[in-house]
Amino acid sequence: AKLTEMASGIGLSIDEIKPLGPAPQERFTTVPIKVSGVGSYEAVTKFMQRLRSDFHDTGVSGFALSGSPE
Known about the structure:
Layout (H helix, E strand, L loop, with lengths): L1 H9 L2 E7 L3 E2 L4 E2 L2 E6 L2 H14 L16
Antiparallel strand pairs: 1-4, 2-3
């Protein structure tokens, strides 16, 4: 819920949040989460900044952008 609220406040519309299978590491277990939605490039950059500042234990291993030129 916090992730969706944060995204909405920035101007992103979240279509899906999908947890993937746990990935055990040596000292901890990671749980990849796939997030998809719609928004401007500026909103995505703000989202990434807020993700880092508000969710300290979260890391981003990759992301993909696609869109239609205006």
